[in-house]
């Protein structure tokens, strides 16, 4: 699943941080990008839970906030 792939990335990133990586920019992409914000948030949560890395990530407050409004 996408979440198991994120878990693999978290392990890889933690290894890189232990080897001296200081900063990383991570971009999530999905074929339709519907779950990309959720995956980005999951990545940040997992990094915070599994390491002492300072993480800034998306804050998804209202699930409808990102939807385009209609004219009619």
Q: What does this entry show, briefly?
A:
The chain is mainly α. The protein is 44% helix and 0% strand.
Strand and helix layout:
Elements: H1 2-18, H2 36-50
Using brief descriptors, characterize the structure shown.
72 residues; mainly alpha; 44% helix; 0% strand; elongated
Strand content: under 5%
Whole-angstrom Rg: 14 Å
Given as residue ranges, the uncertain stretches (5+ residues, pLDDT < 50) are none
| Major beta-sheet overview | none
Structural class: mainly alpha
Task: Give a verbal description of the structure.
This protein has 72 residues and is mainly alpha-helical. The protein has a domain at 2-50. It contains 2 helices and no strands. α1 (2-18) packs across α2. The chain is elongated, with a radius of gyration of 14 Å. The termini are far apart. The mean pLDDT is 85.
């Amino acid at each position: 699943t996408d979440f198991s792939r994120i878990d693999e990335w978290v392990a890889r990133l933690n290894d890189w941080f232990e080897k001296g990586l200081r900063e990383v920019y991570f971009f999530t992409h999905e074929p339709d990008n519907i779950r990309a914000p959720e995956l980005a948030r999951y990545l940040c949560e997992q990094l915070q839970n599994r390491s002492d890395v300072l993480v800034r990530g998306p804050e998804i407050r209202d699930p409808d906030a990102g939807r385009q409004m209609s004219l009619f």
